[in-house]
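Hi there,

I know you've been waiting on this one. I reran it after we fixed the sequence typo, so this is the corrected version. Both the input and the resulting structure follow.
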Amino acid sequence: MPRIVTERNSDLSEIPTRWQAFIFWLLNDGRYLDRKPGRSPRALDPWRLIPFIAIHLGCLAVIWVGVSWFAVALAVSLYLIRMFLITAFYHRFFAHRAFESSRVFRFIVALLGCTAGQRGPLWWASHHRQHHIHSDTDLDPHSPQKDSFWFSHVIWFLTRDAFSVRWGHIKDLQKFKELVWLERFDWLPLVGLAAFCFWLGDFTAKVQPTWNTSGLQALVWGFFVSTTFLYHATYTINSLAHRYGQRRFETPDHSRNNFFLALLTLGEGWHNNHHRYPGAARQGFYWWELDLSYLGLRVLRRLGLVWNLRQVPSKILEAGRARH
């Protein structure tokens, strides 16, 4: 098992100092939790909570920086790009291995996926696999059937229990040392994105002053606003797609298909379909179920960047048609 993000130490006499714990937190090392070993696993992690709140508060700066078409376009573009990275790669590739790609390309998308602020791909995949194994039971990390809306929506992500990678669920991914290394520094690409937004806005203001933008405006819209919308759009699949919508298939959980959520998340809203057959590269099983992430994967397949997109078995498709 990789050294980072370990389980809690058995020797609790080695309680880290405050600064040691902070370094462990920066490196996503499970020894961070040994700072206060007696705390409840469901207790909020203050170091996770502070930057999360800060990103939300940063949105208020739109009052001072104003708005421009460039800033809005940047926010929308970064929302769509990062949503695709989460849905197509964090979810369908790393969590479910629904297609194949080269080792170099998977590291590139893993690195870029970290700009979404939803931890590293191994952390994401391990917790999502936990969700599928125990969907809507007491062992589900984020079930609205077992916990409150807000807990399943976002609070679970900020708890001590959610800090560590669940290595037992991702033994197939541990062999990729570059991904294990990336887990140490999953926050750096997010910081890099913020710096890029500021640089891009500042550069654009100099070469196109009539566009009425600035470094601060691009930072606020491209980073803070876009990331906040991305957070909550992604979280709706946990909190809403197990409560609201239609059930095409009888699954052991309460997953639903929701057209609005599918639009918001580039296809993830066909959640009942997904729980019926998680290994498929597409979640919109039928032509009328819009799945933009799958369309994006088909483009990447034509470019030779991904291949062997796993399809839904015909017997499952036929059973779904018979029900609706």
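Quick highlight: The longest strand covers residues 100-101.

Best,
R. S.
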